[in-house]
Amino acid sequence: LTPQELLNYNEMSHDIYFGITVSDINDNKYLFELTLTLSKDITNIQTLLVKNEKLSKVIDSNRSDIVYSRESSSFHDINNNPIPLAVENDKAALSIYQNTDVLLVKNIFSNIFIPDQDSIDFRESIVRSDEKGLAGSIIRLSNKDHASYQHFLKIIKQLLPTFSTIVQSTTPQTDPVPAESEKPYMVLLEEENLKGKLSMKSLPAGDLRTLYIVASVMSLQPGSTFIIEETENGLHPKRLTDLLDHL
User: Has residue 54 got a pLDDT over 80?
Assistant: First the structure.
């Protein structure tokens, strides 16, 4: 987005304020506040810069303690002491400041998963464990958490009536043997009353999307947030309702 699109720009205001409240599974609650302003650089192009920034720990409805505050390039801690921190004026200090509360908030933000459409549509069946798409998600889930993987299969059998199982195999080894993250896997699916196995390219778009959403959610860490836009794309209304029930 250009700055004008982001700000719904008008000549009366060059600032936009965000206030984001987050909490973790231990009920630690924080308010992250950020004010951005439009400014022109030496080439007369508009850019977004950080004007103010503040992180506060919310104690109760009437009290919050400031973790740090920032006015342009000036930083102060909870006791209003200067913090010797150099950060670019188009970057949030939250990204580089090292503090127990800041690290906790960064961990909350890092556990927000927003899948992009390219990952949902990715149809390769031979993948490495760190690759995007459904096959990569299945490999990571099965290698990391057997119980969650079995739960994933159980849910899929309820959502896809003809689904039988998922078949995984490592492809023939080369010499030298690749590292675990570089090891290629083949992921195929079996359906009832079908002799052959299905690759990702044979799946209907709705089935691919269903499998990807469930595999992604089952892979999340406790306390994570999963955000997906237009969940209904390619899904039958009954399938969508069932999927939301499982989520």
Answer: yes
Is pLDDT of 2 > 80?
A: no
- When pLDDT is cut at 50, 70 and 90, the band that residue 5 belongs to is low
CB 118 within 8 A of CB 132: yes
- Residue (of 135, 110, 109) closest to 122 by Cα position: 135
Gap between the Cα atoms of 138 and 77, Å rounded: 44
176 upstream amide cis, omega within 30 of 0: yes
Mean pLDDT (the chain, rounded): 87
Total Cβ atoms within 10 A of residue 54: 19
**Other beta carbons less than 10 A from residue 217's beta carbon:** 19
Question: Residue 233, Cα to own-chain centre: how many angstroms?
Answer: 19
- Rg of the Cα trace of the chain? 23
pLDDT tens across 86-133, in order? 888 889 999 889 899 999 999 999 889 999 889 999 999 999 989 999
**Among candidate residues 109, 94, 97, 91, the one with its CA nearest the CA of residue 48:** 91
- Give yes or no for a contact between 209 and 120, defined as CB atoms under 8 angstroms apart: yes
pTM of the model: 0.73
Q: Report the DSSP beta bridge partners of residue 34.
A: 18, 53
H-type alpha helices, the chain: 3-7, 100-110, 117-121, 133-144, 146-159, 205-218, 237-246
* Amino acid code (one letter) for 226: F
DSSP 110-148: HTEE---HHHHH---SEE-TT--HHHHHHHHHHHH-HHH
